[in-house]
Amino acid sequence: MNRNRGRVTGAAGQLQALSRNIRFFNSGRNLSASAAHSL
């Protein structure tokens, strides 16, 4: 059971990092889009 919990928390950590990367990527894309608009 402890092993399963460790695997679940590891997957949750990976999911959190993935969502953080996606948010960072989206914000970067929005920044470049707004920069293109200001040009």
Properties at a glance:
1 helix, mainly alpha, 39 residues, 0% strand, single chain
What's the layout of helices and strands?
Blueprint: H1 2-38
Structure description:
The protein has 39 residues and is mainly α. It has one domain (1-39). The protein is 95% helix and 0% strand. The protein contains 1 helix and no strands. The chain has one helix at residues 2-38. The longest helix has 37 residues, at 2-38. The model has no long low-confidence stretch (mean pLDDT 86).
In short, what is this structure?
With 39 residues, this protein is mainly alpha-helical. The chain is 95% helix and 0% strand.
What overall geometry do the principal axes of the alpha carbons give?
rod-shaped
**Count of alpha and pi helical runs:** 1
Structural class by sheet pairing and helices: mainly alpha
Distance from N terminus to C terminus (CA atoms, Å) equals 57 Å
As a percent range, the share of strand residues is: under 5%
Total beta strand runs: 0
The helical percent reads: over 70%
Estimate the mean pLDDT confidence: 86
Count of discrete structural domains: 1
Order of helices and strands: H
Main beta-sheet strand count, sense and barrel state: none
Gyration radius, in Å:
17 Å
Weakly predicted, low-confidence segments: none
